[in-house]
Amino acid sequence: MGLLSGIRIVSTALNLPGPAACARLRELGASLTKIEPPAGDPFEAFCAPWYRRLHDGAEILRIDLKSGAGRDEMQARLREADLLVTAQRAAALERLGLGAAALAAGFPRLCHVAIAGHAPPDDAIAGHDLTYLAPLGLVDPPQLPATLYADMAGAERVVSTALALLLGRERASTERARTVALADAAHALAEPLLEGLTRPGALLGGGYAGYNLYAASDGWIAVAVLEARFAERLASLLGLDRLDAARLREIFAKHGVAHWESWARENDLPIVAVRDPHKEKS
Fold first, then answer.
1. Crossing angle of the two packed helices 17-27 and 48-55, in degrees rounded to 10
2. How would you label 234-254 residue by residue, b for 16+ Cβ within 10 Å and e otherwise?
3. Which residues pair with 273 in a beta bridge?
4. In this structure, are residues 130 and 149 in contact, taking their beta carbons and an 8 Å threshold?
5. Sheet strands side by side (includes 31-36)
6. Do 235 and 139 have their domain in common?
7. Which of 9, 141, 186, 227 fits as disulfide partner to 150, beta carbons 3.0 to 4.6 Å?
8. What pLDDT was estimated at residue 49?
9. For the whole model, what pTM was predicted?
10. Is 2 left (phi over 0), alpha (psi -120 to 50) or beta?
11. Per the omega criterion (within 30 degrees of 0), is the bond before 142 cis?
């Protein structure tokens, strides 16, 4: 029995952000009915194992929402639901009978989180994770981003927005619908960079010796001794008057990553190995 036990979700959101958000809500106890088109969710073809994990235990229905029977089935599901999660454009939702006015009139208790690429009035602009990151300095060509930052951050925004709407409903709020824009999630991720904190040479961009990457004898370690107590402890244990990048490079190069990780745990210091889980699996 989770915190959201009894909360029923219906989702038509395909690809990653919607399923990731719904999986998180299900971890909290909600139940999910996923409505997919007859051809299924393209996400399953992209990464079938992950698709299966995110939908494990969910009810998945293949329904043609463009047909009368499909719409009737959808309406029946929505009558029992607390939350609808969508990722179609507003015009597409209107054509399917799921526009804002129709939902408000037909299902006054239903909360609705609409996932969009961009916030209105730009919600019709096409995009995907890469195009949300690229204008914000979060892409370093020719290397592609290491993960789908906007999609995953957007999924968490869907969760928090859904919880806020459901809580508001219990507190007699009349607001039932909000849009989560993935481009906005990307912008939030970029704020440390935009504010200058993580730019090359800045405090968290290599300018501070206590927050940096260092080569060990057999790999790399990440050092993040931001708080004064951590920085002072590291300097004291290494026999330094203050943290100095050149001296730290010399010291850390003397031992391997396993040594430094074990040493850091023993001394309550935030130092870990830099790893590539994909390479380790292979």
1. 40
2. bbeeeeeeebeeebbeeebee
3. 221
4. no
5. 59-62, 31-36, 8-11, 83-86, 111-116, 177-181
6. no
7. 186
8. 97
9. 0.93
10. beta
11. yes
pLDDT digits (tens, 9 = 90+) for 32-90: 999 999 999 999 999 999 999 999 999 999 999 999 999 999 999 999 999 999 999 99
| Eight-class DSSP state of 205 | I
Number of domains present in the structure of the chain = 2
Neighbouring CB atoms inside 10 A of 115's CB total 26
Cα separation of 150 and 189, whole Å?
8
Identify the H or E element spanning 92: helix 90-95
In single-letter form, the type of residue at position 170 comes to: E
Q: Is the previous residue joined to 49 through a cis bond, with omega within 30 degrees of 0?
A: no
15: Cβ–Cβ under 8 A, 6 or more apart, which residues? 41, 42, 43, 87, 151
CA 254 vs CA 75, 215, 257, 259: distances in Å:
66, 9, 10, 10
Q: Which residues pair with 180 in a beta bridge?
A: 115
The boundaries of the domain holding residue 94 are 8-193
Using DSSP's 3-state secondary structure scheme, residue 49 falls into: helix
Show the beta-strand stretches assigned E in 118-256.
177-181, 211-215, 220-224
Q: What CATH number should be reported for the domain holding residue 220?
A: 3.30.1540.10
Is the pLDDT at 127 greater than 90? The verdict is yes
What would the two tokens of residue 47 be?
Answer: 């990464």
User: Token pair 């994770």 is at which residue?
Assistant: 129
Phi/psi for 83 (5° steps) reads -140, 135
Q: How far apart are CA 190 and CA 194, in angstroms?
A: 6
